[in-house]
Write a structure and sequence with these properties.
With 749 residues, this protein is an alpha+beta fold. The chain has 18 helices and 27 strands. The structure holds dioxothiomolybdenum(VI) ion (MOS). Dioxothiomolybdenum(VI) ion (MOS) binds next to loops.
């Protein structure tokens, strides 16, 4: 499809909700999250579990003396590796897979691993009793300080996944003929997801049927994994989670506390709530690994990239390898003569790593895009010009396969115009505002566009109302809102008339809300469902003697703006409200499903963006303030102005956090997370964020899916960190290659 046709398609109006579907419930406190459903158990009183965690990094629990704790007020049970019910320890279900520690043995693999559960009438009683446990350990030497053991780096055990090394062209020849090269090492720290809603589970059993309210990005994944862990049929498990208070990848897998909560509920034969406290968010529920990245760029005098090499090494838990593919963008972000990438891991006694917002691309662009800035400087080229010179018209990582749609060029030009890039001074340290040094930097943003099979149900209800349901999740991202819009669009109704159901594993199946794929997966299923619904409504009307449509051919009928119409005789029409009223107010229901087409293998699907940052740096304290960021994204259709732009802003805020705040610190001798609180694990507050100017190109990607929209949950973090790092260099002339860029590093640099 040509750009002109794309734009024509884009300009077709579709009705957006002005406000979040669940917005009023949220701001009035009526919205409820997983941990807030206690009144559903009025007949059986809810009790509380507290997770006890290891305080050594490696070895085993020798003994737990729970005599005193068990006699403490309100205590119902203490579960330890020595008395825990035996569970199935089969391999967890992908993609929610994560190796669990379920008190089935006394081994300890990291400091902070769950080693006991105390159940009390109240949370306080459980917590107080937990402090009374007398735990003795057999300490083994721990593998820590992984960054000092890089010689132990090995290929990850990642069966079924792409090889962790990838080579195209002759990289050595590229460097041999290069006029200009960059060769540096860039470091990103361990980062911990900290959604406002901590992980929480409420579990209760009715016979061998288990129901859980669980804070999760993947209700059907938890259903499968929990059934496996508890060794019960998958259909005996129901998972409910109508609202998620942020996930960012942390809630994409089921972690140990979920089956432990189910186990506790079985032991005390009561509904049990297990809610992690903030400190417990640091370790047992995943983290982004630290990466050490050796990047080499080879270029000709005119800026043509001859070779890109990116070798990344990261920490991995002794329990399980997880690969953060920071080397990914080096394969497909730019055209280059040759490329060579690899990813290796060094084992450590740390909690398991997992996906965290834009896994791979977040650290990958954060480091590669500094290297590009360094190359531009050496070439005395404008950083945008360098990127345009090496623009990947097709996907270099898949033998030049076409992109489904790519409008990154427009992102660069719109962004540079809005930012005022032309007035940037290429020489660092030249610009000031009062005492502040001012710097401007830019970077490219990118994240793959994913989608999976999904199902949905729609119903036309009396009074022109609709119902739409899918077993997906809303992480605060706007799933409810865009589901209402899509259902309404199918019949030309007002999205305000749609009731939405999600977050219950009894609903039609949808994929994990991860990999920025929910809207791209679920909306086509709703679109299919409304198409089926239309056919049913038409069938009902043409067979209804009281309908003006009676006797017409179904193929001659359509539904537009809430009315049935005859295509050949425009005077003939029937209202949907009237049709359902005559149907004795019986709703009409249809199912729909959608999955990626086979054509997906013939193209690459990716989103793009250009990010521009202005920073102010205090030359004495080296404090950095991010004043302004302009982000322009090519993500296909923007489905909802408010929820969509909010997500991009949230991502950009994460980029600020990546650049200048977040840093998970591991104690070198005990493996404890030193800064396991939001007081010491820094994330930006409003005063740290500055002005975020975000916009989209908005050209539909109809080759990717029939809705024309690519996911936006993750791309906002990509590129932003490097744009800030490059702006800091432009302000100060100091090139910091280790995130976060804090005053101490600028002082030393
Ligand atoms: Mo996202 S890190 O795939 O939830």
């Amino acid at each position: 499809m040509s750009i002109a046709q794309d734009q024509e398609q884009a300009s077709k109006p579709f009705k957006q909700l002005d406000h979040r579907y669940e917005g009023i419930a949220k701001v009035t406190g009526k919205a409820r999250y997983a941990a807030e459903f206690s009144e559903s158990f009025s007949k059986t009183e809810l009790v509380y579990a507290f997770l006890v965690r290891a305080t050594i990094p490696s070895g085993s629990v020798k003994s737990i003396d729970s005599a005193t704790a068990s006699r403490a007020p309100g205590v119902l049970a203490v579960i330890t590796p020595f008395n825990a019910p035996k569970l199935s320890q089969g391999p967890p279900q992908p993609p929610a897979r994560r190796n669990l520690t379920l008190l089935q043995d006394a081994n300890i693999s990291y400091n902070g691993q769950p080693i006991a559960v105390v159940i009390g009438q109240s949370l306080n009683e459980a917590k107080v009793a937990a402090a009374m446990l007398k735990i003795s350990y057999a300490l083994q030497p721990a593998k820590l300080q992984w960054e000092k053991r890089l010689s132990e780096a090995r290929w990850p055990k990642n069966p079924g996944k792409e090889p962790a090394g990838n080579h195209r062209g002759d990289i050595d020849a590229a460097f041999a003929k290069a006029a200009v090269t960059v060769d540096n090492t860039y470091i990103t720290p361990i980062q911990f997801h900290n959604p406002m809603e901590t992980h929480a589970t409420i579990a209760w059993w009715q016979g061998d049927k288990l129901t859980v309210y669980d804070a999760t990005q993947y209700i059907s994944g938890v259903k499968m994994s929990l059934a496996k862990a508890m060794n019960i049929p998958v259909d005996n498990v129901r998972v409910i989670d109508p609202l998620v208070g942020g996930g960012f990848g942390s809630k994409g897998s089921m972690w140990s506390h979920v089956p432990l909560c189910a186990m506790a509920a079985k032991v005390v034969n009561r509904p049990v709530k297990l809610s992690l406290d903030r400190e417990q968010m640091f370790g047992p529920v995943g983290a982004r690994p630290s990466t050490i990245n050796h990047i080499r760029l080879a270029a000709a005098h005119d800026g043509t990239l001859l070779g890109i090499q990116h070798d990344t090494v990261m920490n991995a838990s002794v329990l399980e390898d997880f690969v953060e593919h920071a080397e990914g963008p080096a394969k497909n972000l730019y055209q280059s003569g040759a490329s060579s990438v690899s990813a290796k891991v060094v084992e450590a006694n740390l909690g398991i790593s997992t996906f965290m917002r834009a896994p791979g691309e977040a650290p990958g662009t954060a480091v590669l895009e500094i290297a590009l800035d360094e190359l531009a400087e050496k070439l005395k080229m404008d950083p945008i010009e360098l990127r345009l010179k090496n623009y990947a018209e097709t996907d270099p990582s898949h033998e030049g396969r076409p992109w489904s749609s790519k409008h990154l060029r427009e992102c660069y030009s719109k962004g540079s115009e809005e930012f005022g890039w032309a007035s940037r001074n290429m020489t660092p340290g030249q610009r000031s505002d009062g005492k502040w040094l001012i710097g401007h930097g830019m970077a490219t943003a990118t994240y793959p566009a994913n989608r999976s099979a999904a199902q949905a149900t729609v119903r036309l209800l009396p009074g022109g109302r609709m119902y739409v349901a899918s077993g997906t999740q809303d992480l605060g991202t706007g799933t409810y809102t865009i589901m209402a819009q899509q259902a309404a669009a199918g019949l030309g109704l007002d999205p305000k008339m749609v009731e939405v159901k999600l977050g219950d594993s009894t609903l039609p199946k949808a994929p994990v809300s991860g990999g920025s794929q929910s809207s791209a997966s679920v909306l086509p299923a709703i679109q299919d469902a409304t198409t089926q619904l239309k056919l049913k409504l038409i069938d009902l009307a043409v067979n209804d003697a009281a309908s003006p449509m009676h006797g017409l051919q179904a193929a001659d009928c359509d539904v537009k703006e809430g009315r049935l119409i005859s295509k050949s005789q425009p005077a003939k029409s029937d209202g949907l409200v009237e049709l359902i009223a005559r149907n004795k107010n019986q709703p009409v229901e249809a199912q729909g499903q959608a999955e990626p087409s086979e054509a997906k293998d013939a193209m690459s699907t990716q989103s793009w963006g250009a990010v521009f940052a202005e920073v102010a740096v205090d030359p004495h304290t080296h404090m950095v303030k991010v004043r302004r960021i302009v982000g322009v994204y090519d993500i296909g259709v923007l489905l909802n102005e408010k929820t969509g732009l909010n997500q991009l802003m949230g991502g950009m805020t994460w980029g600020i956090s990546f650049a200048t705040h977040e840093d998970g610190i591991v104690d070198a001798s005990t493996g404890r997370i030193v800064n396991a609180s939001l007081a010491e694990y820094h994330v930006p507050v409003n005063a740290d964020v500055g002005v975020l100017d975000v916009s989209v190109i908005g050209i539909p990607d109809l080759k990717f899916n029939p809705v024309g929209s690519r996911g936006i949950g993750e791309i906002g973090i990509t590129g932003t960190a490097a744009a800030i790092a490059n702006a800091i260099y432009n302000a100060t002339g100091k090139r910091v290659r280790e995130y976060p860029i804090t005053p101490d590093k600028l002082l030393a640099g």
